[in-house]
Amino acid sequence: MTLLANLPRNVDALALVACAALTATTLIFIFFIEPDAADSAPHRSHLDQLLERRDTIYDNLRDLKFEYRTGKFAEQDYEQMKQTLEAEAALVLAEIETVTGNEARLPRRDPNMRSTA
What we know:
This protein is an all-alpha fold and about 120 residues long.
């Protein structure tokens, strides 16, 4: 019975302690915890992503050529993977030129000239 009689006083004291703890925790978090450097790092632009993708494709082509020379791939498999990577590289390069505004202007072929191929 004495526990029920002291309940309102205990609730007030408990609420006061909880508020003080919450205030202290908030102040510690704001002033003493250092933010992660990645939080303030600038986000990568679309061009940065494309350049990284281009470099990855070039690395993959170089690795593919090395592994072919060491005998890990048959010639047909090597050619197929090489063509796939080269096509992907061409798409990425075209998109890089579109993003940067440096679209390659190829001269038109003269229809009167014959192909030497």
